[in-house]
Amino acid sequence: MKLSPENHEEFRTHGWTVIEKVFPVHEVDSVGQLALKLCEAELKPDESNYAVDRSEDGRIAPRKLDQGFLKNAKLRRFVMAHQLRSLIEQLIGNSPMLFFDQIHMKPPQFGSAKPYHQDNAYFLCHPDDQVITAWIALDDVDEANGCLRYIDGSHLGPILNHQLAQGSTHHLQPMAEQIDLNRERLALVKKGGVVFHHSKALHTSHRNNSERWRRGYATHWATANVTSKNHWITNAYYNRHPDLYQAAIDTIQ
Ligand SMILES: O=C(O)CCC(=O)C(=O)O
């Protein structure tokens, strides 16, 4: 699969781009079902709001599955797919390596919002243009079920100062005044498509008010020269689990 000049230009100027039909629908359907099964096995009703979303009337559903790569061989094969790595390499010019993955489940009716943030406010990686997120749509994603939203061109500015969001133990966000909502654009994408964003692109997603799931498989990649001021690169799969990482690559070759 080859990126179009429009995709290159969009990624360069907006900081994000959508590529449809990267994965076949039957494959993402089966990964979506597996994600749900793995989440349900881990679901603890007394969990803090990190892993669980709660409705106003007390129902719970999974919010997020971290490190599926370490938990399941099928997920490992899925995220290491050639076509995904090739698209990333075309965007950033060097061979990417997966350092972390998380499936954002956003359940129907009450899947919670993710506040505006820049991924590199968490990762603190350098150089920041060699760090990219590839967000694989496991459902058809639109405004009603909580699509990603971006501030166009925000990747060209600095990393903003992020603080813990009020009432949250885990969401970091910049001050509202620093976000120019006039430049907000929606990333609509069909199941099997991928949204790619630069590590400094400001993005968010709203609550899921629809009757449909909105599962997105966020895969976080860096090139070999990337370092981090905190634990993200030291703990990268390719550093902490080199044999597992190599085996995952070998199985798809
Ligand atoms: O899936 C979401 O709603 C948020 C995803 C996100 O923030 C990311 O992939 O960096």
Describe the structure.
- The structure is a single chain.
- With 253 residues, the chain is α+β, with helices and mostly antiparallel strands.
- It has one domain: Sandwich (Jelly Rolls).
- The protein has eight helices and 16 strands.
- It has helices at residues 5-14, 25-42, 68-71, 73-79, 82-92, 119-123, 237-240, 242-251, and strands at residues 16-19, 52-54, 60-62, 64-66, 97-104, 114-117, 125-126, 131-137, 148-151, 163-164, 172-173, 184-187, 194-198, 203-205, 216-222, 227-228.
- The strands form five sheets. The protein has a six-stranded antiparallel beta sheet with strand order 1-13-8-15-5-4. The protein has a four-stranded antiparallel beta sheet with strand order 6-14-9-12, with no helix packed on it.
- A hairpin with a 7-residue loop joins β10 and β11 (172-173).
- The radius of gyration is 17 Å and the shape is globular.
- The two termini are 17 Å apart.
- Bound molecules: 2-oxoglutaric acid.
- 2-oxoglutaric acid binds at residues 104, 114, 119, 133, 135, 203, 205, 216, 218.
